[in-house]
Amino acid sequence: MFLKGTSDLLRLNIATASNIKVKVWWGDALDGAPPAASDFDTVTFAAQTGTGDVTLLAGVAGHTRKPQASVFNTHATQATVVYLDMTDGTNAAEVAGSKVNLLAGESLLMLANETCLHYDSNGGLYPSVGNAASVAEMEAGAALDKYVAPGTQHWHPGHPKCWGVVTVSAGTPTLAANYNLTSITDTATGDIVFTVATDFSSVNWCCQHSVEIITGAFAVATVRDSHVKFGTLAAGTVSLQCIDKTTTTNLLKDPQSWHMVGLGDQA
Amino acid sequence: MNPVMIAISMDDGTLSAMEFHCIGKSPTLPQGAEWMSERGELWTRAPNNANIAAEIAKSLPAFNIYGDPQPQPVSFKVVDRAAFPADRTYRNALKLDGAKVVHDMPRAREWHRKLLRHERTQKFLELDGRRAVAVRSGNAQAVAAVDAEAQRWADAPDDPRIEAAQTVEELKQIKVA
Questions:
Q1: Among residues B9, B68, B73, which one has the least CA distance to residue A234?
Q2: How many CB pairs under 8 A join A and B?
């Protein structure tokens, strides 16, 4: 990037009010002559707490300025999307790769050749998001040249899509921990409904389940077996039932705890 | 925000208890929810009537996947978790009475009879074995004792104390001697 006239501006756009510290440094040369050591300069801006465009550096008539910039989000909690652009007073162009969501403590560095680097709050460099697998690529599960991101890992066919642990220690069961569930419904003794947040794409999903026995003894009245209730494996819900081993028809009984995991394709 | 308990009266006279979660983690947003952060780690939703009704409709469908009709919700009420009796022995006899969850005594009595009949089925198998041993050994006194015990089990569901019981605590005390 070069700033060559007074209309040429390097700007920073801040989407959300936060606390952005900016430093810009550049080489400045008369047109046609290489810069001397004295032609390099820097400026550090006061923390930017507003939104919109902030002019970081302007060109000078007859000069060629080549800037670099670092943008640091010093806010304790607030994230903001930022990007750098250059305008000649008429047209503006975003610096490719500069648009990032700066979390608290994160920084963006633009080098002289316009390469942009995004660092996390620990100084770790973000990988190129262009190499992250898309949802479709995760669902296909075949790409060998894409990385799995935490935000898309769960779309892989072999990854659990939902799970839940329910304890039955008091008057009503408690969903003690879960992923991708919105509720449980206790419909009767030994009969419970799990409701999924993001549904499966069909009723053909695998519900793995089990229950905890209520004592250490293996008497017919205390052992427990879990089952998918007949006809209840729907795209967004499943009912489980728990029985003891008493004759001649087992009795529905509460377990000590319920456990379920769902695998399959999501809608 | 803690989960909210919903007592749901069903058209077959039973009561369902839903634990409605107001905060969760999932790939997409459930009905009425919004993300708590820009990256979508967690969602939140209000436990209002629209969201609760949608959750109930999803959780308790009118038909199972084979087309068989299922019990349907008639009404619901947000209640405190403590409103539900801690003892689940007569859980299937619960009903909603205003803001309270109470035992429906006619259903509780029938449930007690069902438990006795179930226990009796097992007991009869055991008694049959004991009787066979007594018969083989020619012990008429033992045979009579087994027959008397079997009769007590046979009569158990008709125990007049069941119909007279006014609380589930009274029902729990009614056992075959």
A1: B68
A2: 125
